[in-house]
């Protein structure tokens, strides 16, 4: 199989379709339009964010696998068995395995019971 993995930067995002345009600086600034995210959740990246893209054998269809931690984008909370999820600038959740504490941070939190 001749698959190709490239690092690229998000150039624009289509929030409704769940896809983005990606520019590849190491491939002569090639741009691929409307690449879908290979994801199980809705977390859209910011423009210029570094992402990993996996292309199929024909190199025409690619899938954005996700963002890359680097000097520009470091983990905010880390450690073995820890979990951190940022939803927006003001909302996130984290779990610290050492303390067993799960924290939810947001201007308002509402729990909805269905019954």
**The CATH superfamily title of the largest domain:** Gp5 N-terminal domain
C-alpha geometry: elongated
Major sheet summary line: 5 strands, antiparallel
Helix content: under 10%
Approximately how much beta-strand content do the residues carry? 35-45%
**What CATH first level of the largest domain would be assigned?**
Mainly Beta
Instruction: Return the CATH architecture of the largest domain.
Output: Beta Barrel
- Determine the N-to-C terminus distance: 50 Å
How many DSSP E strands?
8
Question: Can you walk through the features of this model?
Answer:
The chain folds into 2 domains: 64 residues, Beta Barrel (OB fold (Dihydrolipoamide Acetyltransferase, E2P)), CATH 2.40.50.230; 41 residues, no CATH class. The chain is built from no helices and 8 strands. It has a 5-stranded antiparallel sheet with strand order 3-2-1-4-5, with no helix packed on it. A 3-stranded antiparallel sheet has the order 6-7-8, with no helix packed on it. The mean pLDDT is 89.
What distinguishing features does this structure have?
single chain, 5-stranded antiparallel beta sheet, OB fold (Dihydrolipoamide Acetyltransferase, E2P), mainly beta, 2 domains, 43% strand, 3-stranded antiparallel beta sheet, 115 residues, elongated, 0% helix
Short description:
The chain is mainly β and 115 residues long. The protein has strands spanning 4-14, 19-24, 30-36, 50-55, 62-67, 83-86, 92-96, 101-105.
Q: Could you outline the blueprint of secondary structure elements for this entry?
A:
Layout: E1 4-14, E2 19-24, E3 30-36, E4 50-55, E5 62-67, E6 83-86, E7 92-96, E8 101-105
Antiparallel strand pairs: 1-2, 1-4, 2-3, 4-5, 6-7, 7-8
């Amino acid at each position: 199989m001749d698959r190709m993995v490239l690092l690229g930067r998000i150039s624009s995002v289509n929030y409704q379709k769940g896809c983005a345009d990606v520019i590849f600086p190491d491939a002569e600034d090639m741009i691929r339009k409307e690449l879908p995210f290979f994801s199980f959740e809705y977390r859209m990246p910011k423009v210029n964010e570094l992402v990993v893209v996996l292309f199929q054998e024909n190199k025409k269809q690619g899938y954005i696998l996700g963002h890359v931690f680097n000097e520009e984008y470091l983990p905010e909370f880390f450690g073995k068995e820890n979990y951190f999820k940022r939803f927006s600038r003001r909302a996130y959740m984290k779990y610290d395995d050492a303390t067993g504490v799960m924290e939810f941070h947001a201007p308002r939190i509402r729990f909805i019971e269905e019954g």
